[in-house]
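Input record (one chain):
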Amino acid sequence: SEGDLSVRAAVSSRDELGRLAETFNRMVANIEEQTETIRRQYDENERLLLAILPRPIARRLKAGEGTIADAFSNVSVLFADLVGFTPLSSRLGPEELVQMLDRLFSRFDELVREMGVEKIKTIGDAYMACCGLPRPRDDHADVVAKLGVRMLAAVQDFNRQHGTGLDLRIGIATGPAVAGVIGRSKFIYDLWGDTVNTASRMESHGVPGCVQITRETYAALSDRAGFESRGIIQVKGKGEMEVFLARGQAA
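The corresponding structure, as predicted from the sequence alone:
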């Protein structure tokens, strides 16, 4: 009655009471086994859910919250794209291609977890992450800038280990964004807003082997060492923008 499934009835005879005790013990053993199976399934479902959604968002979803959408006044968004992956992929078999991308992106995932950044998604050979949500933090620009430099180093380390010639182009922008969960059967935690679009432009107009950031991100950094002005560049859909670059370092 107290929920202790380790309890067993003592079987001291072969009469009716003894048979009843044996039946009770079998019933409790079955309940214990089924409870453990359910617990393992719950833990696995929880692990899969947290692989898709941030923990606070998963908690809100499980609590029955319908539309999950939050506005954040200041975050830093990172886009990274592999340079040289497309020609390399044409020379690799499907399994080797996926294994290579998985090994490299798994290293990015490790860096993201270590630094408290939220991975948003991967799109092909592109990687998107954000700092400052779902839990706001003041040092989001510093953290994402350091993450970008460490990702560049991770690619160079990967090249040395596997004999590849990949490079990484990274763009970062800082500002407001909206985040929320979309979809029902295959949901995703995603971001929207001008900051997201600008970060994407910083990547696409960037320089291989460098982290390119906006003036807003540069102004938000507490430590600007390693970043230098690239000057004014023409950015599609944004016009002229002053941007700053940091080059990758050895891992």
